Amino acid sequence: MGVDFEAPNRAIQNGNIPKLPRPPRPNYNKIHTQPLPVKTYPLPPLIPHNPLSLLHIAFTYLFHLIFPPSSHPLAPRRGYFSAETRSIHVIDEKTARVLWEHGFFGKGSLSRSEPAWLEREKIRQGLVLGNTSEEATRKRREERKQFKTERARKEREAIEEKLVEEATGTNNVNRNGDIEQSVATQFERPFDPADVDHHDPPSVPSPEVEGQLAVPPSDVASEISHLQLPTKTIINQEHLQLTFEEAFFLIYAVGVLEIQDPLTSQVIATSRLLSICRSYSYFPPKSPSSLAPDDPFLLSYVVYHHFRSLGWVVRPGIKFGVDHLLYNRGPVFTHAEFAVIVLPSYNNAYWSSTAELFELVTKKQTKTWWWLHCVNRVQAQVKKTLVMAYVEVPPPASDDESIINEDGDVVDIGGFLKRYRVRELILKRWTLNRNKD
Question: How far apart are CA 422 and CA 342, in angstroms?
Fold first, then answer.
């Protein structure tokens, strides 16, 4: 008996579309092995009961000492400064993939987080089978919304039925008798063709069609999965978008990125890029000569560098009304554990030397109780711990020529950033039902 090749088409026409097997989930532990876009060469482990491990460690150490391996790529990754979006654009697909997979840097310009526009477009046009993380999130949110709507409807119907029962009161016995009599009368009526609903779904076809056995749903799924998909080339219209903090960390701290000016196609020096980021942290941008030690970029980058150095994956937190979100390993593994707010602190004696400076800094660091309550309440609702990062702002270093030159550019970036200090304060919302102990 031959195989019925028309069974998949008949199953689709009858509405019995079998579910295709779910594609395997990517191995994120293997994809995101490296926390930064650099290679490391650790020594082999020491095994106490195996003396040969000492020889292995010594050989590896001497080999790396004589022939030191390179941890950075031969050619640095390249990005482009964008004054319109106040960000850094990475156009090369391989560079964008490396920066995302090794440290979760940036976001896709046409995506929520991971640059996945090309995969979504291929699925939309039917070129590949599968599902992206954004589509899975959207489907999960729709199902959750539908579930809540259905639950609210059932609760409302239950309340209405309860009110009707309480309103009828003592008439329940007579009413039940009338209902039973009406039901019996309905079943005693002769058959009327008008009672038939002509919009009922079609009946399920029999197992045998035209003398041949229909293919089971599993075989239908296999037949559909083996269909040849059309081939078409799609140009990727998405690029990776880095914030100023992420880009400067990759340039200054890691050393794997260089920024080019799109107008002159020249590489921007690190000291010059620092002045540009500080200027564009204001709106409208300020001139380098009018920059202050409490620039928004400086305060944000000091906190970003602080937590990145501690091993956290730092992501923008504008979605929850904060400056940064801290992930233990990354957004594909767990949700953010901490939400960080950057606050300036002016404890240096310089900021209280004159009445004008004291009034200015008092106005900058004054926050209302309602603001703190609202921010803390939002973080408690999304199950995140609020971290208030206070940055100790030093006095201006314009007089020190070893740090800042005549053009206003920072010459010694390390000495300039050492003048800042970060203090962390964890704030939790106390509730009676959760904090009884």
Answer: 10
